[in-house]
Design brief:
Elements lengths: L1 H15 L6 H6 L3 E5 L4 H6 L11 E6 L4 E5 L4 E9 L2 E5 L11 E7 L2 E4 L4 E5 L8
Antiparallel strand pairs: 1-2, 1-8, 2-3, 3-4, 4-5, 5-6, 6-7, 7-8
């Protein structure tokens, strides 16, 4: 009888344990991460070559849901697919993503910061409605 009780208890324990692989993903959904080219807004403004032409001062990644994201690398917003595995967020390139022909892999430092592994740039969560705090 004791064996059956122990087996039943272990069975219930294993059945109630869930694999929480998507917890990181859930914590990133709805967030936008920025990589700033300039430390301040004024530096960005000063770097503009012409008043009729504006160069982008940042790159951004917005996590929309559990598989879709938007990424801006220059001035085009790309709708992309992504996945998260082993503390890595992978943005999948496709035929419409002209600016990057290969997948982009970010290390998830924490829920507020990502590191793009191809160039070690840090992308921080945007807080509020402005790029510069």
């Amino acid at each position: 009888m004791r064996k059956y009780f122990l087996l039943s208890a272990l069975g219930i324990l294993f059945l109630n344990c869930s694999n929480d692989d998507n917890s990181q993903q859930s914590e990133l959904i709805g967030k936008t991460f920025d990589h700033l080219f300039f430390e301040t807004e004024q530096e960005c403004i000063d770097a503009q070559p012409d008043s009729k032409f504006f160069i982008n001062c940042h790159q951004e990644l917005s996590i929309n849901d559990d598989e879709n994201a938007d990424i801006v690398l220059s001035d085009i917003i790309y709708s992309v697919k992504y996945s998260i595995e082993n503390d890595k967020l992978v943005i999948y390139s496709n035929t419409t993503t002209i600016e990057f022909q290969n997948d982009m892999t970010f290390e998830i430092i924490n829920t507020n910061s990502l590191k793009l592994l191809s160039n070690n740039t840090i992308w921080n969560e945007r807080i509020g409605n402005t790029l510069w705090n």
